[in-house]
Specification:
about 190 residues, 6 helices, single chain, mainly alpha, globular
Length: about 190
């Protein structure tokens, strides 16, 4: 029973730390939308929606994504609220890919090996960055904006997206290795061999 109680307490602690982070991201989404930055409002809203998915699917307010991952996802959103951070977009896209990967692995029957999870996060980040570049090009072509100024800047944007996708993937592996090691330790202490 102590093992079960510690798991319940951990779930409560996680929810107690995760809910304020999610609420703050929702507030940032509203503030950025009121400032006219609809892209950033959409990214923040996407993080909030992803945070609610496990809670809604399990219909339990204690079932949340790990607060550490939500804080990681919130960091570039918060930073962008108080100023410009050129790499914030890539950090946000990479953390959204990371959140999706964690949800697929933790809350669905899908099981990902660490190598596949790394590849999935990196490729998802690169795919979104590629779509973003296409959207910028279309905007420049059709609406006479000037998002894409030089080819060099475009290439560096894609390099940054790939690098942050790799960083997010590495964080995924480290986090789940730590989580799996803790689970094995709890099972050994309780005498459960499975």
């Amino acid at each position: 029973m102590p093992v079960l109680q510690s798991l319940i307490d951990n779930e409560r602690v996680n929810a107690a730390l995760a809910w304020p982070i999610v609420c703050s991201i929702a507030v940032v989404a509203v503030l950025t939308a009121s400032r006219g930055s609809f892209l950033w409002a959409a990214l923040a809203t996407a993080i909030v929606v992803l945070a609610f998915v496990p809670t809604i699917v399990r219909w339990d307010a204690l079932v949340m994504l790990p607060w550490e991952l939500l804080a990681l996802a919130a960091a570039p959103i918060w930073a962008r609220l108080f100023g410009t951070l050129p790499i914030a977009g890539f950090l946000t896209v990479a953390t959204i890919a990371l959140l999706i990967t964690v949800e697929l692995d933790a809350y669905t029957p899908i099981e990902m090996s660490p190598r596949f999870a790394v590849a999935f996060v990196v490729l998802a980040t690169m795919a979104v960055a590629g779509l973003w570049v296409i959207a910028q090009w279309l905007s420049d072509t059709l609406l006479a904006t000037s998002f894409l100024t030089t080819k060099g800047e475009l290439m560096w944007d894609l390099v940054y997206a790939t690098a942050f996708g790799g960083l997010a993937a590495a964080l995924f592996v480290v986090y789940f290795y730590r989580h799996d090691t803790a689970s094995v330790g709890r099972r050994e202490r309780s005498g459960d061999p499975s």
